[in-house]
């Protein structure tokens, strides 16, 4: 399988770390949806990261759908719990994390792609409020029920997604979401970033470390 997209995308990074955790073999193609648009379009005409090219050439997109397929097809197990109550909590954490990633990306694109004179500040303020709300809820949940950060497997999908989301936002918009107000997420991120799977797939434009 091939995973296409840059690791500066939290959605791509979430998939990469999950595949490494599950020990699923894959190749990583670090192609930008901006600078590598034409190359990316040759693989996936929709040009959406992450993209997964399956063994038979089928192209999938959307990080959650990719992970659902990988877990079903690889027999490597799942990073989500099976027991309903635990699953409910994990899915809530994943949902909050993905919402935070989406809102961070919206602000980054608004600032980076739209001319200053065409930016709509009330919209930016609204999205920033949604972003802070997502992390406030996630901080409260993590404080009440801390993740086991002894390994990526122990973190599970909920912990991986939360850690990736927090690191992404702190890299891109630290002035919007104050680290001082989220000590539980700061501690989670610090512990997660030291794990082998996170180290092998660092935030940025590089590729997943070979041999992992």
Radius of gyration (Å): 17 Å
**SSE string, helices as H and strands as E:** EHEHEEHHHHHH
- Please state roughly what percent of the residues sit in beta strands, choosing from under 5%, 5-15%, 15-25%, 25-35%, 35-45% or over 45%: 5-15%
CATH class of the largest domain: Mainly Alpha
Total of DSSP H or I helical runs spanning 4+ residues = 8
Uncertain stretches of 5 or more adjacent residues: none
Strand order of the largest sheet: 2-1-3-4
CATH architecture of the largest domain: Up-down Bundle
Average pLDDT level: 96
Distance between the termini: 15 Å
Supply the number of structural domains: 2
Keywords:
single chain, 212 residues, mainly alpha, Glutaredoxin, Glutathione S-transferase Yfyf (Class Pi), Chain A, domain 2, 2 domains, 4-stranded mixed β-sheet, 8 helices, 4 strands, globular
């Amino acid at each position: 399988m091939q995973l296409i997209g840059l690791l500066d995308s939290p959605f791509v990074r979430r998939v990469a770390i999950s595949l490494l955790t599950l020990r699923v073999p894959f190749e990583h193609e670090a192609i930008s949806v901006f600078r590598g648009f034409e190359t990316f379009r040759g693989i996936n005409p929709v040009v959406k990261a992450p993209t997964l090219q399956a063994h038979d050439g089928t192209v999938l997109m959307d990080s959650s759908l990719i992970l659902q397929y990988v877990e079903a097809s690889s027999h490597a197990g799942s990073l989500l719990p099976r027991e309903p109550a635990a699953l409910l909590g994990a899915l809530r954490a994943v949902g909050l994390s993905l919402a935070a990633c989406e809102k961070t990306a919206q602000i980054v694109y608004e600032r980076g792609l739209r001319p200053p004179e065409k930016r709509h500040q009330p919209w930016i303020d609204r999205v920033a409020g949604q972003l802070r709300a997502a992390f406030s809820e996630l901080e409260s949940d993590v404080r009440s029920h801390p993740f086991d950060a002894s390994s990526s497997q122990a973190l599970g999908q909920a912990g991986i997604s939360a850690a990736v989301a927090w690191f992404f936002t702190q890299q891109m918009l630290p002035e919007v979401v104050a680290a001082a107000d989220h000590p539980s997420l700061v501690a989670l991120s610090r512990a997660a970033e030291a794990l082998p799977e996170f180290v092998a797939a660092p935030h940025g434009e590089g590729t997943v470390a070979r041999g992992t």
